[in-house]
Write a structure and sequence with these properties.
Arc Repressor Mutant, subunit A; 70% helix; 193 residues
Length: 193
């Protein structure tokens, strides 16, 4: 199926149009935040009519949800080292934050907008809880432990990549892993207090 052509260009398939819309939306949400990003600006960036955005995604919330579908690529529990799981997860998330502008944009929107906060909660709950359940001593504690792990990971991400607190920005990766790794490890594997 083909859709309207970008200005002066050949017609695109619906898949290519959706991809262009999502790329433009991710960049616009990252640059402007959820509140200031507009369907009109996103459509302009994608080279299409705004009605096409509405056709595929319904409204700005639907577009944001689609644009912020993120696979955290958390390692499966059996692939993590028996000793140092906490440090391995901290390293993993440092890699993710530093190499994925969409994830950082989602975090920025998550601290300023209710829809963004819900997306962050859904992404972390949906992906962190199953991993933690495969590690912790009592799987019934997995949601609580996942929340604690997420608090450390998200807290550092906000301090380092969003608010840019100078000490958090200037810390080496090794220092961050050394400080946070044992805390995350305790949340994952320690007996319940």
């Amino acid at each position: 199926m083909t859709t309207e052509a970008p200005a002066g260009g050949p017609r695109r398939t619906s898949g290519a149009t959706k991809a262009a819309i999502l790329d433009a939306a991710r960049e616009r949400f990252a640059a402007d935040g959820y509140e200031r990003a507009t369907i009109r600006a996103i459509a302009r960036d994608a080279g299409i009519d705004p009605s096409m955005v509405m056709r595929y995604y319904g409204n700005k919330e639907g577009l944001f949800a689609a644009a912020s579908e993120i696979d955290l690529r958390i390692p499966r529990p059996e692939t993590l080292p028996a000793v140092g799981m906490g440090a391995a997860l901290v390293e993993h998330f440092l890699d993710r934050w530093e190499n994925d502008d969409v994830l950082t944009a989602l975090l920025r929107v998550g601290v300023t907008n209710a829809a963004g906060a819900e997306r962050v909660r859904a992404v972390f709950t949906g992906q962190m809880v199953p991993v933690v359940a495969g590690i912790c001593p009592d799987p019934e504690d997995a949601p609580r432990r996942a929340a604690l792990v997420s608090s450390q990971i998200l807290g550092m991400a906000i301090a380092r990549y969003v608010l840019c607190f100078p000490p958090a920005v200037t810390m080496s990766r090794e220092d961050i892993v050394d400080w946070l790794g044992p805390t995350v490890q305790r949340y994952l594997t320690a007996e319940r207090p």
